[in-house]
């Protein structure tokens, strides 16, 4: 919105049978669908992500809108970086496998005329609490002088500053007519210990 875009938010109803039709109807006339759908807990990813992906692709096919997916680095598994769009997907976790299959579904949709941008990011960090695991785990007790880190502190981790990611997504959407039908692009990120 701050960049001049009109934003429509879609709230899932939980009714799987009517949700796709409602999504298509509410997306009529939009230029871009930003896929921010994620199940509220990881244990339902295997069930929900494929359905969400199918619904969003069907909506883009019905409306002609470009899909923007905030992709992650799970698909790279434990390969050392730096990663590029040419890095093979070798997920080593269930979440990585689900995301890799999702991305393949989006790639396949481009063969049917859908435009897709996968803008890849590390884990999000932001100035304000935004519900990321950085906020919920690492930074939860920083004011008390405590740092909780889920893993070895000397291991490099991919982080993305959320405002930078949003600016990159907006700029790419502003140039969508110049983008290829499918673009897998690493967003602005940091590799930090």
Descriptors:
alpha/beta, 193 residues, single chain, four-stranded parallel β-sheet, 35% helix, three-stranded mixed β-sheet
Task: Compile the SSE list and pairings.
Elements: H1 16-27, E1 32-34, H2 45-63, E2 66-71, H3 94-110, E3 116-120, E4 123-125, H4 133-138, E5 157-161, H5 162-174, E6 182-186, E7 190-192
Parallel strand pairs: 1-2, 2-3, 3-6, 4-5
Antiparallel strand pairs: 5-7
Helix pairs in contact: 1-2, 2-3
Short description:
With 193 residues, the chain is α/β, with parallel strands linked by helices. It has helices spanning 16-27, 45-63, 94-110, 133-138, 162-174; strands at residues 32-34, 66-71, 116-120, 123-125, 157-161, 182-186, 190-192.
Helix percent reads 25-40%
| Strand neighbour order, sheet with most strands | 1-2-3-6
Largest sheet: 4 strands, parallel
Order of helices and strands: HEHEHEEHEHEE
Distance between the termini: 33 Å
Number of DSSP helical runs: 5
Tell me the number of strands: 7
List segments where confidence is low: pLDDT < 50 over at least 5 consecutive residues: none
Q: By helix and strand content, what is the structural category?
A: alpha/beta
Could you say which overall geometry the principal axes of the C-alpha atoms support?
globular
Average predicted confidence as pLDDT = 90
Strand proportion, as a percent range, falls in 15-25%
Cα-atom radius of gyration = 17 Å
Describe what this molecule looks like in 3D.
The chain is of the alpha/beta class. The chain has five helices and seven strands, in the order αβαβαββαβαββ. The chain has helices at residues 16-27, 45-63, 94-110, 133-138, 162-174, and strands at 32-34, 66-71, 116-120, 123-125, 157-161, 182-186, 190-192. The strands form two sheets. Strands 1-2-3-6 form a four-stranded parallel sheet, with helices on both faces. The protein has a three-stranded mixed sheet with strand order 4-5-7. β4 (123-125), α4 (133-138) and β5 (157-161) form a beta-alpha-beta unit. The protein is globular, with a radius of gyration of 17 Å.
